[in-house]
Amino acid sequence: MNILFIGDIYGNPGRSAIRVFLKDLKEKYKVDLTIANGENAAGGKGITRAIANELYAAGIDFLTMGNHVWDQQSAVSFIDEEPRLIRPANYPLGAPGKGYGIIRVAGKKVGVLNLSGRVYLPSLDDPFSISIRWINELAKETNIILVDFHAEATSEKIALGWFLDGKVTAVLGTHTHVQTADARLLEHGTAYITDVGMTGPRDSVLGVKKELIIKRFLTQMPVKFEAASGPIQINAVVINVDDNTGRALQIIPIQITATA
Ligand code: FE2
After folding, report:
1. How far is the CA of 14 from the centre of ligand 1 (A)?
2. What value, to the nearest 5°, has the Cα angle with vertex 128 and ends 124 and 133?
């Protein structure tokens, strides 16, 4: 099967990019399952139930999150009623929601695990040891398992890729909003990329109006973030998976921009 994984959808421009690009991408790559990181979908900060529903209607099957998961207060209550949306599995016990999910695709099951890094991010539980616990759980049901590692530091992401090489179908980095040029199959067959990138306004600083961020760097004063306008982009990867073994056969990075 072919699995499309879309990098962090940023605000209204990111949702526009989904409407503009997704249908054609799914046709071109014969996509069977579409997963996206949606933690910036509501104006850059978190997600609401209405926005999640908008993304499902636009063709996304499953959503992962990250450090912004609780930015919209409503997420705390609706996440427990939403089986298609997961948050990092290494939140401590007692946090709402779940860190993994299983999706049924054409008679097969696909497991998805969401983890957060701890370098330059809140000090959640250890993503390395927790990943093994949940992968063992998912492996009882399927050998097709994707991991969204929402993390800042390239070292932490690369280390988790090697740690899980051969244990999962793919380890896909999110959070830094810039697609890295290192998509590859690792030694034992796990598809890997340090960061899938950002789906949203291209001429921005990680999605935010560039003038605001430049002002912040110049003055060291707080600024209210606003999504940039202008050309929109989608950043994603397609993973071609051997349905029987769960091994990745290929990972294809995608970056497309439109000026509409
Ligand atoms: Fe993030």
Report:
1. 14
2. 100
Give residue 2's identity as a one-letter amino acid code.
N
Cα 192 to ligand 1 centre (Å): 18
* CA-wise closest residue to 144 among 128, 121, 167: 167
Active site residues: 68
Sign of CA dihedral 189, 190, 195, 197: positive
Task: Quote the pLDDT of residue 86.
Answer: 98
**Which residue range(s) make up the domain with 236?**
2-258
CA atoms within 13 Å, Cβ hemisphere of 56: 15
pLDDT at 259: 76
Spacing, Cα 242 to ligand 1 middle (Å): 30
pLDDT score of 260:
54
CA of 25 relative to ligand 1 center, distance in Å: 24
Q: What is the CATH number of the domain that holds 160?
A: 3.60.21.10
Amino acid making up residue 32: D
Nearest Cα residue to 232 out of 15, 72, 8, 41: 15
List average pLDDT for each run of 10 residues in the chain, which is 260 residues long: 98 97 98 98 97 98 98 95 97 96 95 98 97 98 98 98 98 98 98 98 97 97 95 98 97 90
Domain count along the chain: 1
Residue reference for tokens 């900060």: 45
93, 119, 210, 225: which is closest to 173 by C-alpha? 119
Beta bridge partners of 171: 147, 192
